[in-house]
Amino acid sequence: LAATPGICLMAPSKRRKTSAESQPTSGNASSGVRTRRSTSARGDLPDAPDADLDAEPEVLMCPITRAMFRDPVIVVVSGHTYERSDILSHFKCNGAKDPLTRRALNSTKVMTIWAMRNVVQAWLDKHPGVTPDGWDSRELLEPSKDDGTYDDEGVLQTWRAMCPELQERWPEAARPEQWRGVTIENGRVVELVLESWGLTAAVPAEIGRLSALRVLILADNELTSLPAE
Fold first, then answer.
1. Rounded to two decimals, what is the model's pTM?
2. pLDDT tens digits for range 28-72
3. Are 123 and 138 a contacting pair, CB within 8 Å?
4. Could you tell me if 88 and 148 are in contact, meaning their C-beta atoms sit under 8 angstroms apart?
5. What Rg value do the Cα atoms of the chain yield, rounded?
6. Percent share of the chain, pLDDT over 90
């Protein structure tokens, strides 16, 4: 498969193939072919010796890594399903864009998709001798609490509440993306240009949560402390 543009580079998981066992020559020459699980677990299949019935179904695979879902989530805005760690890594590398459509999203919020977890578990139950490619065990992961959202606006609101000068310049009735000196892209604060604003007191430690921040200009103010580099 060709790599999908805009997706973080990840080594795709290889599908496991059937294996051939040495068997005495008699009758059908391909009678020694076995799928990954022992044929005794489901009976011999002389009519389809090359069929890999243990291969993970495409519908249960993450579109990013081609590995079976272990903690599947749905991207609320697009409705597409991905493995949680894979889609969150994609958002971190490429911003709020859907990997399948490459369209910009106005939110990176994801939610656990319980129906998909149930389908994966049902497949595991039907294939007790198989560990999916890329898994270190046969257990589904506990759903993570990371829902892909960032509270960048909350950080700015916290700073505003601490700084009288910001309260004068950032109207409470306006949204943060409308505030002077603030640049927000895809819900993330990327620039804060607050030069010569007469800001006092300290910059709150919460500013360090603005992981998408690229530009921070605080020159010519009267701040008592600055965030660490």
1. 0.55
2. 433 333 334 333 333 343 344 444 567 889 999 999 999 999 999
3. no
4. yes
5. 26
6. 52
Write the secondary structure of the chain as one string of H (helix), E (strand) and C (coil). CCCCCCCCCCCCCCCCCCEECCCCCCCCCCCCEECCCCHHHCCCCCCCCCCCCCCCCHHHECCCCCCECCCEEEECCCCCEEEHHHHHHHHHHHCCECCCCCCECCCCCEEECHHHHHHHHHHHHHCCCCCCCCCCCCCCCCCCCCCCCCCHHHHHHHHHHHCHHHHHHCCCCCCHHHCCCEEEECCEEEEEECCCCCCEEECCHHHHHCCCCCEEECCCCEEEECCCC
**Closest alpha carbon to 42 in 33, 54, 30:** 54
Q: What is the C-alpha separation between 203 and 199, in angstroms, rounded?
A: 9
The C-alpha atoms of residue 117 and residue 127 are separated, in whole angstroms, by: 15
- Write b or e for each residue in 67-103: b if 16 or more Cβ atoms lie within 10 A of its Cβ, otherwise e: bbbbbbbbbebbeebbbbbbbbbbbeeebbbbbeeee
